[in-house]
Amino acid sequence: MKIKIISKTHAKPNKPILGKKQYQLTTFDLPYLAFYYNQKFLLYKFKNLLDLEEPTFQNDVVEKLKDGLGLVLEDFYQLAGKLAKDDEGVFRVEYDSDDGEINGVEFSAADAADVSVDDLTADDGTAKFKDLVPYNGILNLEGLKRPLLAVQVTKLKDGLAMGLAFNHAVLDGTATWHFMSSWAEICRGAQSISVQPFLDRSKARDTRVKLDLTSVKDPNASSNGGDATAEPPHLVEKIFKFSDSAIHTIKSRANSVIPLDGSKPFSTFQSLTSHIWRHVTLARGLKPEDITVFTVFADCRRRVDPPMPEEYFGNCIQAIFTGTAAGLLAAHGPEFGASVIQKAIVAHDARAIDARNEEWEKSPKIFQFKDAGVNCVAVGSSPRFKVYEVDFGWGKPETVRSGSNNRFNGMMYLYQGKAGGISIDVEITLEASVMEKLEKNKEFLLVEDGKKISNGNGKVNGFV
């Protein structure tokens, strides 16, 4: 793949932000300093190929995006700032229009004229588009000297690729997609954004936490409970697209057994993740007594007391851990795993969140992937994010993916399916031998004898 960088600039708010703005990073932010930048990849196909000709592309696409970015940064100016820390090691994000060291948002325009949209969707892995997304292998801690957001817009043979890298110590998925939808809104012609970000991080948590990060470790070190001296396993990536009717079937099966422990009906999330957790565990061939951990990075905006607004800009997530013996998952139907997941989620209320924060503040620990748990399945992102509604004026994206950063054995990202309804795309990273078994598992794929399962109402379920 031949990619030519045409230009690289730094975007700042169109109007000066008066005064020096400083926001202390909270206990919700700090654990992710040693994660990698959070990468997103959006792929657009242009119906009118004249839009891809020069100078139309430069004037009507690249400049339009840059102009919109400068306007939306007036509200999301923290993304144009930098990380900083005081003499005691307390981290903050700051923006000062008079500071010549403020980076702004890195914006690159590139050309890959021989590459088509179909070329980039032909494979489930991230290798095909890795060079189209900035900041591969860059830790969030480097936001002390790098921009907090980097964007690369690449012209393709028949469309446009947009790769983005967000500093995960500054914002979570909810804030990321709020920013993206706001930027798109401006590019479609709005004079201002419809939903303002809530920028005061002190309302989420205001404890000063002093960190010594002189020896940050690679978050991949000894991933998923493995031996740090052993050869790392060969990991592969796969997208499983569960159709609307497949999700209905999975949810129906999880709720077909009335629980004796008083569990509520299982949600779509609990049903689907139980389905995946159980079949990944079976594919791993664990011993019955082996423990397997389920981890979800959950939004806490509505869980904390008092609740934080949905438009809170920052991280307001916390990892929820639960686990069970592999033999118990294998011996029971999907309702067992769903019940384990539901109990952990319900128990993670405001009191549990505060207790976790207080514990971390007493003994801060920078997160590594192995901390997700042994033999884990971990969930990031959310099908609630309206990723296919990010329209900059030339239509909805063909596909939305996560980049190559922050992937480890058992990590999966959930996105709304492009088909709409309650369809869900599951990006998952596993050992190659485990993935091979999962891809052949008819029960996991909802397939019988090479045919997709009918749910009896004329619709067809299944993996598509």
TrEMBL record:
Coiled-coil boundaries: none
UniProt entry tagged with the keyword Acyltransferase: yes
Cleaved signal peptide residues: none
UniProt xrefs under InterPro entries: CAT-like_dom_sf, Sec_Metabolite_Acyltrans
Example of a GO MF term: acyltransferase activity
Keywords: Acyltransferase, Transferase
Similarity field: Belongs to the plant acyltransferase family.
Protein name (database record): BAHD acyltransferase DCR
